[in-house]
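Just scan my protein:

. . .
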Amino acid sequence: MAAPVGPDPVISGRAQDNNLMAAAMLNDLLNNALDPGYRARSGAGKKRHWWDGPMVLLVCVAAGLLLVTAYQQTHRSAPASQSARQDLESRIRNLQSEAVTMDDEAKQLAAQVAALRDQQLPAGDDSALRGLELAAGSIAVTGPGVSIEVGEPKQSPSSASTGRTGTASQPQDSVLRDRDIRAIVNQLWTTGAEAIAVNGIRLTATSAIRFAGESILVDFQTLSSPYTVEAVGDRNKMLLGFADSATARKFKTEEAVYGISFTFSGKSKLTLPSVTVMQQSDASLGPAPSSTPASSPAPTPTEHPS
């Protein structure tokens, strides 16, 4: 029988060398993660100086002092800012209250003037005068009419506050604009309204409905949702005309899509307040120029007139 053949010593030696080289490469990869060229460019392995540690500590201390100083300055000025804001809000509220009081007094005086005027005028048909006063809004109006109310959609739960410190409920963008209120008002005028008020503010020939920021203004007075438009006139005619209008269909669509509130109904009796009628002013021509121009002195020999 032939003797068994053993492993080739040459092949075994090569395998052992390969294993050693692989182990050496793994050790070098783990111990020297940076490439030698990158290590040379980045400055890794440079000699550290004794002042490196104190310098880092000094920079950290300076940054900490800067943050502490900024924090103290912010909190020291916070009470003063809050006090100034509260004072400003209080002054605004007081001025608004005074303006309302003066407006009521002006309306009472206007009513007294109207009563004295009626006493002095001869008895007769004053329907033309009453019509002008109605158009100008200088007298209150009572009668049947319609009431239309539109409001912003309710705040969605996703935009509510999270409850964490520093968070607050996010205001939702307004869906209704000034053009929407104007559309309702114009439609009511078209269907025969005799007098209209928006949130209790009487509209006249000089009234303006505008949009500023996220608020609707009527004669520079800020309104808040819901917006109530009341009109005095032929109730049935206004109800039928408004219900069959494109404006009503538009609001019905927005009610289904955006979730706004929209209702309108007839009223047997509505009372619209009067407004303070300001003194109207108009432009006029100035004094006519003189037909004979003023004579200018004759130039001296040394002057050169142009």
